[in-house]
Design brief:
Order of helices and strands: HEEEEEHEHHEHHEHEEH
CATH class: Alpha Beta
CATH architecture: Alpha-Beta Barrel
Number of domains: 1
Number of strands: 10
């Protein structure tokens, strides 16, 4: 390593130390405040008497703290004949809840023509997960992201209306989409003895203004439930300055352990020059 490389490395370390946040001190000897109930109704009971709930700190199953591992599997991106094998792999790896996007553009690419067949067979996918004792968390959007064109919104929708807000035309289309999902998943929710325990509304949503923000999230949540998507839990993204209502939904956070590797690689390469 050259003198120039060492100098750059030391400079980078110095900058990092200056920019680092103050240390967080945790006193493990101090008793934590007990969790409290949420200020709105949530959770649910299965036909065989099992109860799901949530407080300010964790989920509960039959009154006991429950910390299930959730893993993502996007059914429309994988051949249907291989779904079962992949679900079993997830189960073997310790995953208890399978989350999955329902990409609107994959099911209504042509306006008014829905396709729930083959690798788009949402019902079959959820039934397979339930067959192997897995829970399911459906992510109904309407906007999902997932590196899908338009975040999963169909091209024709973008031509016809404003999106991701309480626009009357947009909500009419969303109502139809949610209704189709509800028909596909009828009888598969926790209250029915099925595996679906959660519904995610929108994704990474941080818009503000009239007909947007928390108002829009709560509108979508009501529309989902009215369409038959009746789950113990409704969630929204908790990061990126998200719009998080104070009622009816819980915020969920996630992380990428390999995030920003590309930038770090470039930094390392620059130190070696």
């Amino acid at each position: 390593m050259t003198f120039r490389s060492v100098s750059r490395l030391l400079a980078a370390v110095a900058v990092a130390l200056v920019a680092a946040p103050a240390a967080v001190i945790v006193d493990a000897a101090k008793a934590a405040a007990p969790p409290v109930a949420l200020p709105f109704s949530t959770g649910g009971r299965s036909p065989d008497g099992h109860v799901l709930a949530v407080n300010s700190r964790y989920l509960l199953l039959d009154g006991k703290p429950w910390f299930p591992v959730m893993g993502e599997f996007q059914y429309t991106r994988y051949p249907a004949e291989n779904w079962e094998q992949e679900i079993l792999k997830m189960k073997a790896g310790g995953v208890r809840i399978v989350s999955t996007y329902i990409f609107w553009i994959h099911h209504e690419e042509i306006e008014g023509s829905f396709d729930w067949s083959g690798r788009r067979d949402l019902r079959q996918f959820v039934e397979l997960a339930g067959k192997h004792g897995m829970f399911v968390w459906v992510r109904v959007g309407p906007w999902d992201h997932g590196e899908v064109r338009n975040g999963g919104l169909p091209d024709w929708l973008l031509r016809n209306t404003k999106t991701r807000q309480n626009d009357a035309a947009y909500l009419k289309y969303v109502q139809r989409f949610y209704g189709e999902i509800g028909r596909q998943l009828q009888g598969l929710f926790w209250k029915d003895g099925g595996p679906i325990v959660g519904v995610q509304i929108e994704n990474e949503y941080h818009s503000r203004g009239t007909g947007k923000g928390e108002e829009h999230i709560l509108t979508l949540r009501k529309m989902a439930r009215d369409a038959g998507l009746d789950a113990p839990f409704y969630s929204v993204t908790g990061w990126d300055d998200a719009a998080i209502p104070s009622r009816d939904v819980i915020s969920v956070f996630g992380g990428y352990p390999d995030y920003d590797v590309g930038d770090r690689k470039l930094e390392l390469e620059s130190w070696q020059t």
